[in-house]
């Protein structure tokens, strides 16, 4: 609930896993994702599972979370996901990894884990006085190296299994018996293997017993000789046999990053982007090899399969939201853009619109009538563009009136397959590449408003509709667009679309007078940034907030408080040089006494039961100020302290 000027939202999903995973957790509702597993073992009961699912609603809408749960549970358990875990993740972030895997298991999913141990092995070899040698990027594995590798792999495997079982998640260590290999090149690499067969029965037996399979990447020859195999390659070969929906590579960087811009690459559609991507000057060495390996893997799998490169702490967001968190790689389909109806398959386009465009499916209008409108527009000197993919899973229509520079997005529809495959994202990229300024109108009742907010640079509420725009900075232009808003498309862009989106556009509030009769909505950046005080910066939520505020044009950090980090520089913040402080409730009150120039927004990212002194200090001070100085900062409490407040002060 939210108090006027204050709001709160539950957070810290992964941090709550250890508590939620306990058998005493209770919930409400029903679900049957685990129906297959329960035939073999006592899996999580429905109340426990429902409680965990509700936690997921904190990172995505109920609609998209349930959509992905249905998608993942529609296949056999071993076909959900193969997750490759780098050795550095086990050594540096074991608790987060175990929590992430436990979370998946508590909603009835059984990821298959293949892990490496490269950093740990190098450390052990150095201690033993053995030089780590490589050829073509492959570790040369002689007898002494292999002996130590077997010990290291067994030790790291045991660490992960024990960490999972401490959280109540059954896991089975599998250090041999899955991968059968021949020597890759004995003279060159010694005891390094090339996998020739995968024994899937060992993995399936673990899942039938209700245990997460935790595999090392060691293989054996048919005669029983142990061979070393790169964990990435082992995970890929396992995926070729199981054909899972997801192949996940966990790393510390949380994705692939563009070598020029330094920004994380959110999606790669190989059919559309692969050749151009390889021509980029920064795509070389390990990055190029990784992309080639992923393409070769996905080319052998069903088109529904995809690869995600993500960190352990963001795994749940990558899997259960359309916005994602790391880098998603899929084959996708080649997209097209045509400016003549004769160049598209009108029958397939018609079928897509009939199924997914409400105005056409309801009989309010027909595809033929809409075609006629487009032809008339072109004959009058205007233009239209039709976007889509080869199998016609997504389609968009953009128009531009004669003598105008701003384009109108009239339709954007997609099948569920296109949404789950993020083909809609690729279509949006193509549209915005061709149209630097875009406007569209959506009914306020649309179920997918968050998709539009994430894509738009601004919006304005006009009666029962919302006008969105992209790439338009001039307020006079915006005002004219709002006063002569485009007719809302009953289909709404992405009628079958996600409730979220991969990608992020900030929505900055602007202070200006509204056009007559219109309510203020979001607009472009203006005015000085709002100053934010963050209390509780050490946890995951605090760290993520710092990144978000750093990238937002309308906010800046004034104070970042953490008892443990006091005096240390604030990481991931580039707007100014800022160090952590340790603010008490009284000190927060003293800062609030400074008036509006002090802090506009206080964010309390604290554990449950800790927020009250800070809230009381702010209230006491601000209410005691002279009327000429009184102001009411927004207070955002991320704990559960005021969630069920009945006073009406919080919303």
Describe this structure as you would to a colleague.
The protein has 651 residues and is an alpha/beta fold. Helix content is 36%, strand content 19%. Strand 21 and strand 22 form a beta hairpin. Helix 6 (94-106) crosses helix 8 (143-166) and helix 23 runs parallel beside helix 24. The longest helix has 24 residues, at 143-166.
Which descriptors apply to this entry?
alpha/beta; seven-stranded mixed sheet; 651 residues; eight-stranded mixed sheet; globular
Short description:
By secondary structure, this protein is of the alpha/beta class. Helix content is 36%, strand content 19%. The strands form 6 sheets. It has an 8-stranded mixed beta sheet, sandwiched between helices.
